[in-house]
Every structure is written in structure tokens, then in C-alpha cells.
Amino acid sequence: MEDAWIKFGQTVICGILLGGMYSLIAIGMTLIMGVMKIVNLAHGALVMVGMYVVYICATNYGIDPYIGMFIAMPVLFFLGCLIQKYMINRLVEVDSILPENQVLLTVGIMLVLTEGIRLFFKSDYRSVVTSYSSDTLYIGAMSISVPLVIGFIIAMAFTFLLHMFLTKSDLGKSIRATAQDRDAAIFMGVNSSKITMITFGLGAALAAAGGSLLLPLFYLFPDVGHLFTAKSFIITILGGLGSTWGAAIGGLVIGLSESLGATYISMGYKDVVGLVMFILVLLFLPGGIRSLVKR
Amino acid sequence: MLNKNTLMTIVFALVAVALPVIIKAPYQQHILILVIIWATIGTAWNLLSGYAGQVSFGHAAFFGVGAYSAGLLTLHYGLSPWWGLALGPVMAMLIALPIGAIAFRLRGPYFALATLALGEIFRLMFLNMTGFTNGAKGILIMPAITSKIAYYYIGLGILAATLLVTYLIVHSKIGYYLVSIREDQDAATSLGIPTTFYKNLALLPSALFTGLAGAFYMNYVTFIDPDIVFNLTDISIMVILVVMLGGVATTWGPTIGAALYIIMGELFRTTLGSANVLVFGVLVCLIIMFLPNGIAGELDIIKRITQRKKAGLSGGV
Amino acid sequence: MGILEARGITKRFGGLTAVNELSFAVDKGEIFGIIGPNGSGKTTVFNMISRFFPITAGEIYFNDRRIDALPAHEICKIGIGRTFQVVKPLRRMTVQENVMAGAFLRTRNISKARRKAKEIINFCNLDDYRSRAAMGLPIPLRKRLEIARALATEPVLLLLDETCAGLNPKESEAAIDLIRRIRDTGVTIIIIEHIMKVMMGISDRILAINFGKEIAMGKPQEVANHPEVIKAYLGEAYA
What we know:
By secondary structure, chain A is mainly α. Chain A is 75% helix and 3% strand. In chain A, strands 1-2 form a two-stranded antiparallel ribbon. In chain A, helix 2 (43-61) crosses helix 3, helix 2 (43-61) packs across helix 8 (192-214) and helix 9 (224-239) packs parallel to helix 11 (267-284). The mean pLDDT of chain A is 87. Chain B has a single domain, classed as ABC transporter involved in vitamin B12 uptake, BtuC, CATH 1.10.3470. The longest helix of chain B has 27 residues, at 195-221. Chain B is globular, with a radius of gyration of 20 Å. Residues 309-317 of chain B have low confidence and may be disordered. Chain A binds chain B through residues 39, 87, 90-91, 94-101, 103-105, 107-112, 114-116, 118-119, 226, 230, 233, 237, 266, 268-269, 271-272, 275-276, 278-279, 282-283, 286, and chain B through 49-50, 53, 55, 57, 102, 105-106, 108-110, 112-114, 117-118, 120-121, 124-125, 127-128, 182, 232-233, 237, 240-241, 244, 248-249, 274-275, 277-278, 280-282, 284-285, 288-289, 292-293, 297.
């Protein structure tokens, strides 16, 4: 009995901590989807590229992953801006039968990023080992991994900072205005192509941040991005498109349900749980968690 | 006008029938068979997504179920996998019904995401139901036929049937209704079109022929596992790329796209080594940015514009 | 006898009541106008009749048959056609194909649908544009195409949503002429228009609404001079 409760408590805490980092990645996606109304299937690949940047910093220059993160973020910001400006933005002028062509373009970008990385690093599984990688923290009888705790704290700090940026700064306000009503925002003098570019950059930087925090916990390989794309999608839809806090809470929910699913159902079916939840939310709660709060 | 089209079809058909006689190398014949399989899936996808505008990111579900229908018949009942050609399409249509019931409640990108998730659910289910499906170990069968030429002609028959049925649907009232739904669902409803019913009319044949292609694939390749036949990138997304490259909502687009895609893929693979997928990805980006309606699609548009100009001139005089 | 009758129809969106217990009856063969300032609930009334969303309360009868629970596509089938305020052309289809899409409601045969479409295109003076893609047409022609497409479904009752909005006087004149000719073929018409002047000349009777409620009803002259209508349109000071 005692053991069962410890196992449960540990599962819940790990789930929430992990979820906090997922949130950060998903917030990046929800920003992009909210402002540009596009489905970005390259998001996980951006996470992956960010992780490789941190990996290079750590293995080649001995930079601690939590510091390498502040190198990965500007690099990805820049990459995101380039992708938006020279690729995605071009599709606005293109007249296609299926508007889903922009989704496909992000697939193409995903392929290029993934395969570009594979060309240099092969498909090998890599990991960054630090002195504290395997340290654990004890809360009563429950053991919690230290990188999980650090990652969660940093992720929450970033979420808070982003919230301040979006609500208090002029640039942040313009981003929110564009997300709410693009035409009105343009009418009010917002430079929409600049805003979309910065938003995509910001989304990519957040993806990199989340990836860096997860690096001590996950194996790194070029295809790892798919995992994060799928997760951030589920979280984004769950939280309500374009909602920062929705994504933050959605991340925790997914982290928790995944952790519970892995402990109590089976590793194999835990992804099915997430996907089924995703479809149920699409059907019955189209506005996500946010719509519940609004009511 | 009609004669020109018929003539082109006949020429195409003759070339297709004659190809394996001209191309004798087994490797090259293998490429041709792959082209046929992809052309079939592409044509089937095109009906639902190109004409009716319901962009499916989950066609691997139909392909995989078709392939597994054939494989499981052999695995569990010792029947010839060729019976899969009958069972596969039926099973694919059976799973299409609940998939449609769920996904057709959603529009646009949400429809796409729902089909993506449903396709992934099927992959994971087949991966995890190890007792029934062999899980990740997959299914290996002994081929009854080894002649590539035989496979080629069977595949060609399947493709011809797919093209014919699709053509007939598209050029009937149903086709007009499907395109109307794609262009504006509200307008379609206001014209008395029961949109969900017609979307299902596009989905069912689309699933049928994709399932058929899957069953044929099992017979030809002789080995499947869930990560091959239910693969999101290599099947579901690839079929979209094939059709986009060839031409969305055109009769021959998917076939042209399949030919280019497979041949290009093989060329890249043999000449570029490990960089081949990278180059392919770059190409995908370029195609979407500069040929958004595919090769056949752009030709169509160019034709329409020039015709309009001619019509305008004669009208003016 | 009324061809269409609305009894106390109400539509609420969350806390907002867009149409509030509105009742009216439309006679066979007349042109029935609905006027009101922007946001007064005119288009909502159309969407309620054509079942684009469920109504909150009330009943709608068409030829004495209750229709407020039918699925949206059935509404057209029983003979109620409509156009949209923001036109919804089938962009990549030609004018001919657009109209054929409507004609297929009554036939499965392609050449019959084509013939029917030709007739209607001719009736609507769109012959010159028959093989043009709808997306290339200027707004006045798109509005006319919208009417042609609805006509192809052989409606008994036609709902026209702001057909003259955004047209210059000459184009407006042509549109009014077309509407009159449609009426002369025996089709009953309900027309929404923001512009009073257009409505005055064309309508047999007018219903004026504001905030989803009836403020006046009757012959065009009566409605135009009704103090409530003047107030709604011009503000308190003019009443």
C-alpha cells in the first residue's frame, strides 16, 4: 500500500515536471499557430535543431547545457525568422487549390532540417552527460531527477517572462493584436510581415529552449523532432489555439497523462491515449481549455 | 475535344502495356511497379482530397489495413495473400466509415489534423496488438509468383480500374458536387448538397483503392510491419507530395507525380548517397513554393488562360 | 395564403439576442423586403430560414409545412433558394459550372444540367462570361452569378441578401430589373437591403427591424414614414 502511494506520487510529480517543459515547446507552437493561422509540422524539427546546437556547445566547447541554451535560442530565433520571411511568407501570394499547401511546406522544411542534421551527425543516438545528470532529489521516499526539477523551474520562468512580454511590451501587444484580428491590426498600423517574422522566430526560440531543457532527459537523434511535433500539437489543441496559458496547462495535462499512462497502462499504448484525447478535444471542445475558462 | 483526350489515354495505355517488354532489367521493372502502386494511392487520395478538398493526412490507415488484410489471412488462416485483394478494400472501407464519421465533423486544418491522429492511432494499435498482428516483427510471406512482369500487369490493372472509377465519378454529378464542396461548403449546402453524404461518397472509393494498393503491396513486397505500411511520413504525407507534384484535382496528375517522385527518389538515392532525402526535401519546398498546383495543374491553368484569351478575341470581333 | 410564415422566431448567440420573437408572413408571388440598420438581425433571419444554424425558439412554416427542424440542405430541396451577403462563388469553377452545380439538384443528367444552366445564364445576362472562372469576375457579376446559381435549383421562394450593396446606380438598376423578372416568372422573393431607396421601388411590403424586433410593417411608403424607422436610420433627433 505504502509503496503504491509512493509510486503514484512519483509518477504525478514527474509528469508535471516533464509537462512544464512540454509546455514551453507548445507555447512556441501556439504562438505561431495563433498569429499566422498555420499548422507548423516543422516545430519538432526546430526543437531538434536547438538540441543539437546545445549538444555541439557541450561536447565541442564544454559549455553546460543550461548555458548552451542561451546560444541555441538566438540561433533558432534567427533560423525561424529566415524560414518565415523567405519560405512561408511567400505562400501568401501563391494561389493553390488546396490551402493545406502551407502545411506541406512545413513538412518540406522538416525534411530539410532533419536530413541536414542527419548528414552531419548520422542517425546515432547521443546524449549530453553532466556531473548532475543522474543526481536525484528526495521528497520523503520519492526520488525525483534533478534535471527534471531544474528544467521545470526554468520553463516556468520563461513562461512567466513570455507572458509579461506579451501583455506589457508594445511588440508583445502587437503580436497579440495580430493574432486576434490581423486585418484590424494592419489597419491600426501594425507591420504584419515584421510581426509574423518575429513571432515565428520567437516560437522557434521557445522550441529551442524547451529542447535544451529536455536534452539531459532524452536521447538525441535526428528523428526525435517527430515526438515533439506530435506532443505540441496535442497540447496546442487541448489548450485552445493561440492561448499561452492554455498551452501551459495543456502541457502539464499531457505530461501527467503520459506519465500515468506509462506507469499504469503500458508504454506501448501511452501515445494512443494522447491521440484519442486529441481527437476528443477537437470534436467536443473545439476552443480547448481556454473555452472552459471563458464560460 | 473529346477525341484528343481519348487519343491521349490510348497512347498512355499502349505505352504502359508495352513498357515491361521494352524495359527488361528486373530493377527497372521493380521501379515501374512502385510507380504503379504510388499512382494508385495518389489517384485514390486525389478523389477525396484534391477534388472534394478534404485533405487527408491519414491515408496510411487504409493502405496499412489493406496490406495487413492480405498478410493476416496468410498468417492466421494459411490462405493465399491474393485473397487480400478482395478483403483489403472491404476492410479499408469498413474503417473509413468511423474515420469519416469523426473527421467530417471538422473542417480545413482540423480535418487534416484529425485524420493525421487517426492514422497514427491505427499504426500504434497494429504495433501493440502483437498477438494478432505480430507487432513490430511484421509479417513475412512466401510469394506465389516471382515474375515481375506478372506483378506489373496485375498492378497496371488495379491502377487502370482506379483511374477509370475516379474519372467516372469526377465527370458525373457527384464530381460537380465534390468540387463545389471544396470551393465553398456553405454555398454547396445552400444549393441543397448534403455535404457529409457526398464527402463519404468520395471517401469510400478513396479508401477502397488505397486498401487495394496496400493488399497488392503486401503480395509484391512480401514483408510488412506497422512502421512501413502505416508510416505517417513515408505513406500519408508522401502521397500528398506525389499528388501535389503531379497535379491536384487532375486525372493524370497523381500518375505523373508518382512517376517523377519514384524515379527522382531512386536517382537521388543511387547518385547522392546519404544526402538523397535532404535534396528531396529541398525539392519539396521548391515545388510547393513555385508549382503550387503541380505539373498537370499548372499546365491546366495555362491552357485555360490561353483559351480565354482566344475566346475573348473572337468574341470581340 | 402565406407561402412562408415565421412565428415568434428567436435566435440567441450566448448572451446576445440577435432576433427576438419576430413574426411575419410572406404572400405567394410578392417581393417582401426586410430593412434595418447594420447588425439589426436581417441576415440572421435568413440564416434561420435556411437553417444555417438552429433557431433558439419559434416556428417556421413553408407552404404550411413546419421546416425549422429540417437539415440545411433539405431547405433548398423543398424550394427555398438563397444568396449570401458576402458572395460565395465556387471560385475555381466557371460561371457555367457554378450554375450547373445548382441545376444538379433537380437532375442527375449532365447534358440536362448544362442546358438548364445555359437558359439561366441567358436569363441573367451572363452569356459573355459563361466559360470564365468565377474567381476572375468583378463583384457585380459575382452577385448576379450568385442569383443565377440559386435560380438553377428551381426555387419557389428566393432569399436575396443585399444584392445591391456595393453596386453603382446603373448596376443596381440592372439588378432590380433582374429581380423583377424573376418575380414575373412566379417566384416569391424575400429581399434584405440596407439601402432604403432600392427597397422602396421594388418591394410590395416591407418589414423593418431593429435589435432583432419588428419596428414597422406594411406598404413601403408607410414604413418609410414610420417614426420608429426614421429614428433607427437617422437617429433620435430626426424622429
